[in-house]
Amino acid sequence: MSENMRSLRNFFLYKCLFALTFWNHISLSVENELFTSVSNGLPEDGSDKKMKSLPLLYTNSYRSQANFDWVVIENTTESLSLSEITNDNVKKLVALLSNFRQGSRLQNLTLTNVSVDWNDIMEVLQTVWHSSIEYLSISSLTQLSDVKSYNFDYSGTSMKAFTVKKVLITDLYFTQDDLYRIFADMNIAALTIAESEMIHMLCPSSDSPFRYLNFLKNDLTDLLFQNCDKLIQLETLILQKNKFESLSKVSFMTSRMKLLKYLDMSHNLLRNDAADVQCRWAESLTELDLSSNQLMDSVFECLPVNIKKLDLQNNQITSVAKGVADLKSLKELNLASNRLADLPGCSGFASLEFLNIEMNLILTPSADFFQSCPRVRELQAGHNPFKCSCELQDFIRLERQSGGKLFGWPAAYVCEYPEDLRGTQLKDFHLTELACNTTLLLVTALLLTLVLVGVVAFLCIYLDVLWYVRMTWQWTQTKRRAWHNHPEEQESVLQFHAFISYSERDSLWVKNELIPNLEKGEGGIQLCQHERNFIPGKSIVENIINCIEKSYKSIFVLSPNFVQSEWCHYELYFAHHKLFSENSNSLILILLEPISPCIIPARYHKLKALMAKRTYLEWPKERSKHVLFWANLRAAISINLPMADGRRCAETD
C-alpha cells in the first residue's frame, strides 16, 4: 500500500515539474553541490567578509506560448534562474514565488533582464522576503516609473544576501529617500548595489544587521554615512570606483562602525586634506585599500593605527617620511606604481613582513633595507629603472645574503641605465672591488703615484737628469744671447783645428806633449785651450760652448782624473750635443790612462757610451810608438781653416 502511495506521489511530482517548463524563459536546476557552495557564501557567524554575487544557474530552457494558471504542489529545486521579466509576466512570477514558503528547499533566486514598474518590483521583493529564498540576485533592472514610498514589511525573512546590478531608473521626478530607504532598512547580512549610478545611500533607521556592504562602481560622494551610528555590525565595506575626494571624511565615516575590518576605497578621487585636519578611523579597521587615488606623502598622517594590510598602489607618493606614521601592527604594505626614489625604512612599521614597491622611480635601492626591516619576509622591488653602478653592487650583494626574499628575482630586476647596459639583468652586472671602493681606489692611486714619483726621483738622481736639464738650459740661453748680439755671425766660422778638454791634473802632459807636438812645424795645428783662448768676462759655460763651436774637432784627454772633473763633463756634454745637432764626426778621444768602467759615475752614461761605440787613441807608454800616435792624431784633425790666425774663441778677423 505504501509502495503505491510513493509511486503516485512521484507521478504527481514529475507532472508538476513538466508543467513548469512551459513558463516563458524559465530555467530550473537542481545542483545540490553547487548550491551548497553558494549558500555557504555567508556563514552564520559572518566570518566571510568578501561575499561575491550569486551566479546565474542555467540548465535547460523551454519556451511555450501557453497561458494558463498552475499551482506548485511540491518544490524540490534549490536554485532558480529567471530571465526577461516584464510587466506582462511579473504577476505570474509573484504567483510562482508565493508558493515557495519558508521551509521550502528553494534558497537561491536569480533574475536577469528585469523591466517592471516600481510597485511590481516591490511586490516581487516583498514576496521573496517572506519566502524560503536566502540569496537573491537581480541583474539589469530597469525601473520604468512611479517610484514612491512603499511600506515594506521586513519581518520574518529568511533572506541573508541581496545583490542588484545595473539598475536604471527611468522616472525623472521622485523622492530619492523613498528609493534609498527600501535598501537602507533591509534586515539582511549582505547588500550589494553595483554599477547603478547611485549617488547616495541613507543611514539605516535602526541598528542594522548589515555585515557586508558593496556599492561598487556608483556615484557616491563624501556625504555617504556621515554621522551614521547604525552600522554597528558592519565588517566589510566596498566603495570602489565612486567619487570620494576627502580621506579625512572617509575616516570620520568609519569612526562609528565599531566592527569594521575591511574597507575598499580604491579607484576614487581621494586626496589628503590639510595637515591640521585630523583623521579618526574605526579602531577595528585592519585592512584598507586606497589604491588608484590621488594621495601624496601626507597620507601617512591619516591612517588607521591598527591597520595590518595597507594598499597604496598607484598614487602620487614620493617618499615615506620617518617618524610620521607609527603603524606598529602593519604587516603588508603595497606602494607599487608610485614615485618613490628609494626603499622606505621601517622606523614606523615595526611589524612589516611584506612590501611591494614595484614600478617606482628607484635607481639605486638602499642596501641596509633588511637591516632596518628585520621582519620583512618578502620584498617586491622589480620593474624599477635601476641604474647599474657601484651603488647598486651592495643591493645585488644583499640579494645573495637575503635568502630569496626578493620576489621576482632575477627576471624583474633589469638595468635601465646606462644605455649600454639597458636590458642586462642585475644578476649579470659585475664591477671590480677596486672600481667601486673609493677608499681603496684612492689608496691605490696614491701608492702608484708615490711609486712613480720615487722611480722618477731615483732616475733623476742616478742619471743626473737635473744636471742635464740645467746644461741644456744654459746652452739654449747662450745660443739665444748669441743670436741677439751677433745675428750676422750665426753661421759659425771655424778658427781652430781642435778644442782640447782635459783635467787640470793632466795639464802637464797636455802642455809638454800634446800642444808642442801638434802646433810645431809648418802647417801647425791651431788648438783652442781654455787657459789662453777663453774670453775674460764671459761665463765658463759660454766660453766652452763658443770654443767647441769654433773648433773643427774636440779632443778629450781621458783619464781617471777626467772622470772626476765636473768641467770636463760639461765640455763632453756640449761637444756631444754638437755631434748630434750638426751630425758631424767631431770627437777625438785620447785615452791617457786606462779607465775602469766601475769608477765612471752613473751620470756619465754618455762617456760610457762613447767609449763603448767610438774608436779612441791610446797614449803608448813606449817612446818608439809616439811618432805613429802623433801622425794618427794629426791625420784625424787635418783640415784647412778659412781663418787660421784667430787667437780667442769669440774673435774673428
UniProtKB/TrEMBL annotation:
Domain of life: Eukaryota
Name of the featured protein: TLR1 protein
GO biological process terms, semicolon-separated: cellular response to bacterial lipopeptide; inflammatory response; innate immune response; toll-like receptor signaling pathway
Entry's family note: Belongs to the Toll-like receptor family.
Chief localisation class: membrane
Topology within the bilayer: Single-pass type I membrane protein
Localization terms from the record: Membrane
Pfam families found in the cross-reference section: LRR_8, TIR
GO molecular function: lipopeptide binding; signaling receptor activity; Toll-like receptor 2 binding
UniProt keyword list: Glycoprotein, Immunity, Inflammatory response, Innate immunity, Leucine-rich repeat, Membrane, Receptor, Repeat, Signal, Transmembrane, Transmembrane helix
Annotated TM spans: 440-469
Organism placement in taxonomy: Eukaryota, Metazoa, Chordata, Craniata, Vertebrata
Domain TIR: 494-637
GO cellular component: plasma membrane
InterPro entries: Cys-rich_flank_reg_C (IPR000483), Leu-rich_rpt (IPR001611), Leu-rich_rpt_typical-subtyp (IPR003591), LRR_dom_sf (IPR032675), TIR_dom (IPR000157), Toll_tir_struct_dom_sf (IPR035897)
